[in-house]
Specification:
The protein is mainly α. About 65% of the residues lie in helices and about 5% in strands. The protein is globular and about 55 Å long.
Length: about 180
């Protein structure tokens, strides 16, 4: 895996975010999901990030570039593992912690707010040359984020339903077995 051509603002930006997200992910987010659910959510979002970027940034579309080169480099890996995974995990954690936000209007407002917040964050990343647009517009990202987050909500519900069924089959009813801590 190649190193960056030069160590500049985009690598520094990624390293700072890696440290911040790792701190939040490890220390501030209390264990809420089972290990298997956490791993699935985390890996799912890393794979979504890689897939979407490959589809949109690669040929034939080539709508934007990630980092310094068109090749997959070390800091691309950092971006996917230490930023995409924890950022979306944090979204789903808050969504679950707030009890699905008690109403559809609150749920939709939260989804829209997070999509817009991520779009603003993406714009800041553009300023630090993490992304270079070749036809992509930053506001195109809002529906992409909405789709990703809706997919995550569906996946979380599916995983929790599967865990509930497993719990019933195992005959245990303790939330400790699910790894839920409020």
């Amino acid at each position: 895996m190649p190193l960056p051509n030069k160590f500049d603002e985009n690598e520094i930006f990624i390293l700072i975010l890696c440290v911040l997200y790792s701190f939040v992910f490890v220390t501030l987010l209390h264990k809420r999901f089972t290990y298997s659910t956490s791993i699935i959510l985390f890996l799912f979002n890393i794979s979504i990030g890689i897939t979407v970027d490959h589809f949109l940034a690669g040929p034939p579309l080539d709508l934007y570039d990630v980092m310094d080169t068109k090749e997959f480099e070390l800091f691309d890996l950092f971006l996917y593992i230490f930023i995409y995974g924890p950022a979306t995990y944090t979204f789903i954690y808050i969504y679950d912690k707030w009890g699905y936000l008690n109403s559809n209007s609150k749920k939709y407002l939260y989804l829209l707010f997070i999509a817009i917040l991520n779009t603003v964050f993406e714009y800041v990343a553009v300023l630090f040359n993490v992304y270079e647009y070749n036809g992509w517009k930053v506001y195109y990202s809002i529906p992409v984020y909405l789709l990703v987050y809706c997919t995550n909500i569906y996946l979380l519900k599916l995983l929790k339903n599967t865990e509930s069924k497993k719990e019933c089959l195992d005959g245990s009813s303790s939330h400790a077995n699910l790894g839920n801590v409020d």
